[in-house]
Design a protein that fits this description.
This protein is 0% helix and 54% strand. It is an all-beta fold and 117 residues long. The strands form 2 sheets. Strands 2, 4, 5, 6, 9, 10 and 11 form a 7-stranded mixed β-sheet that branches. It has a 4-stranded antiparallel β-sheet with strand order 1-3-8-7, with no helix packed on it. It is globular.
Length: 117
């Protein structure tokens, strides 16, 4: 059984920074993509950034230049360093891992990020 455990998030002021981390455990194919999505109530879940085990990071246009995604050196872990935060970054952030062999997606429980003065 695959489980994703997220940490980080919370409250930040506009212009501030936060770091999200996620660790996936369980049976996952070595080739996979990990990423972060975010969702505001009543809206669709949007891809924020992703990175595969074999490729370059991808960033959505609304975070490019402000957020940095990276994979850890051990296991299936991913981090999202968020800087220059804006109130519109407020959302629940979800960690995702996609097994590139089975194409199955697994999700974390979500962590709240609130940007407010």
């Amino acid at each position: 059984q695959v489980q994703l455990v997220e940490s980080g998030g919370g409250l930040a002021q506009p212009g501030g920074s936060l770091r999200l981390s996620c660790a996936a455990t369980g049976k996952i194919f070595a080739l996979n993509t990990m990423g972060w999505y975010r969702q505001v109530p009543g809206q669709v879940r949007d891809l924020v950034a992703s990175v595969s085990t074999a490729g370059s990071p991808y960033y959505s246009s609304f975070v490019k230049g402000r957020f940095t995604i990276s994979r850890g050196n051990v296991g299936n872990t991913v981090h999202l360093q968020m800087t220059s935060l804006k109130p519109e970054d407020t959302a629940v952030y979800y960690c995702n891992i996609q097994d590139l062999r089975s194409e199955v997606d697994y999700w974390g429980q979500g962590t709240q990020v609130t940007v407010s003065s």
